[in-house]
Amino acid sequence: MSAVLKPPAAATLSPFQAAAREKIWSMPLEELHPADPQHFVDNVEGHIFDRLRAQDPVHRGHSPVPEVGSYWSVTRYQDVMYVDTHPELFSSDWSQGGITLFNAPDGERLPMFIAMDPPKHDDQRKAVSTIVAPANLNNWQAEIRERTGRLLDSLPRNEPFDWVDKVSIELTTCMLATLFDFPFEDRRLLTWWSDVATMNKATNPEALEPAERMAELGKMLGYFTRLWNERVNAAPRTDLVSMLAHGAATRNMPPMEYMGNLVLLIVGGNDTTRNSMTGGLLALNDNPEQFAKLRANPALVESLVPEIIRWQTPLAYMRRTATQDTELGGKKIAKGDKIAMWYLSGNRDETAIDRPDEFIIDRARPRQHLSFGFGIHRCVGNRLAELQLKILWEEILKRFPVIEVLGEPTRVRSSFVRGYSKLMVNIPG
Amino acid sequence: MPKITFIAHSGQRHTVDATSGLSLMRAAIDNNVPGIDGDCGGACACATCHVFVEGAWAAKTGARTQQEDDMLNFAAELRESSRLACQITITDDLDGLEVTMPEGQH
Questions:
Q1: Distance to chain B for A363, nearest Cα, Å
Q2: Calpha distance A9→A95 (Å, rounded)
Q3: Chain A residues in contact with B48 (beta carbon < 8 A)
Q4: Distance from the A309 Cα atom to the nearest Cα atom in chain B, whole angstroms
Q5: So what's the pLDDT on residue A270?
């Protein structure tokens, strides 16, 4: 083990980042709490993971939020891979607490297939997975390209605007509306419900109260129940609601399970790609020599896209719960313990990825990152996400020689969804 | 060195000199055969090295493992002959092996 015992030279860091790094590297290890959402607002979480990978790769941390409490952080690539590929030892099941560190109270726990173990997980996942299978992706391409081009052509010129709202949210919300065959004029409801679903009052003071949150999700269920009722009696079609209404494993779901699976599909198809659309622009802006390389050779979009997804890691972790006493990285994990697999940290592990702290758009094996997870819960929409990002960057390169980033983005207060709520830009011309 | 042929969905053939002891997935990746992704690096954890092994070759390449079966369960175009190339080890016996690939890896 080549443990780095001191923080590397902070020459390239801003004074704020250098001070944060110094502080994080001098704290007692047991006081480190990587899931504190403030780290993600401040963009300093990387320093914690650098230290943990070097000094305490399977780490026990404690949150002051009782519903989070004590949890293990798994920070190295190979250990994340191990946990992700041993679902019999590390459960995703919603009844155990599901996939986030926050243990929701009884009435707010939502069954959804990402938070189920086999065999039910397998059956429900298969009910929807064909919509994003390779053969179907070919059918989406022309529509996504036309829509992306039209949106880029409509953007303001010589006038600052919010890239998150006008590009990232709009494109991913349109895609989601298409997948659900959701009334297009109401599509921003999907964005709202996605945000509501990932909100948590216990860790974010700006979030809705739990009762209000559940009431909003109830409205979502009401809206989608109308769509279900229209489609369940019609011939099966290729939209997600029709697939759920006709699928053998999903057609008899109780309302809470329908709600849960809607949340999964809405958040999974929305937040993630949205934040990679913003994160990619930021990464290229921060690495102008890479942007220049891309402009000189637009074919590099193929390897740019997975590098953006690694770099952003839009879901920073997934939680598992130990089903029995076990051992990981020399630490004794007890049955019932919570484990955060930090994809974000594994994606910066130098033992698995060459020069992991550099954004390099022409890596030889760019898709060997953890952002989609591995094993049976691997992201079902991964290829659709890549397709949307690929088309976005191809169409940007055809149009805009320059996109100026105006200042720092506003980061989302969450250690789960690693994203942006605002990024002001200007397109000259 | 055993010669292995990967046949794309389009019918395009790629014949490579494989190295005994390495996986069929590595034989594709190391020779830049398009259509095999191998995102997980050979951990049987992503199903992006899906191939079809037909007829007599199936007996020589062996049976699916449980984990392989679990992953293939979600693959598009799942068939009896479906295998994950990362779970097949190249041996001299496999000289002349032909495998076909699905429309896309997912």
A1: 13
A2: 45
A3: 367
A4: 13
A5: 85
